[in-house]
Amino acid sequence: MVCIPCIVIPVLLWIFKKFLEPYIYPLISPLVDRIWTRKPIQESNNTNKSKVDCKGADTNGLPRKGPTEISDKKKD
């Protein structure tokens, strides 16, 4: 059995999105634009930040536990 909110909430959201939002959004959008200002993202010219040393990391980029060098010698 499916609970009532699992049926009612998606239906109400669909009704809002389909029928009410086209009328409400033009009224609210000027207010939201004044309150929520968008600041431009400044790009830096420093390319050194993107270079990462991956010698001590595994394939996922996470640091490995244990020695980073693999030895071919057998230990007695």
Residue share in β-strands: under 5%
Q: What is the strand tally?
A: 0
The H-and-E topology, N to C, reads as H
Mean pLDDT: 75
Instruction: Label the overall shape.
Output: flat
Biggest sheet layout: none
Q: What is the straight-line distance between the termini?
A: 64 Å
What low-confidence regions span 5 or more consecutive residues with pLDDT below 50?
none
Helix content: 40-55%
Name the structural class: mainly alpha
Alpha-carbon Rg, integer: 28 Å
Count of helical stretches: 1
Task: Provide a quick synopsis of the model.
The protein is mainly alpha-helical and 76 residues long.
Structure description:
With 76 residues, the chain is mostly helical. It has a domain at 1-30. The protein is 42% helix and 0% strand. The protein is built from one helix and no strands. The longest helix has 32 residues, at 4-35. The protein is flat. It starts with a helix and ends in a 41-residue tail after the last helix.
Task: Compile the SSE list and pairings.
Blueprint: H1 4-35
What are the main properties of this structure?
single chain; 76 residues; mainly alpha; 1 helix; UPF0729 protein C18orf32 homolog; UPF0729_C18orf32-like
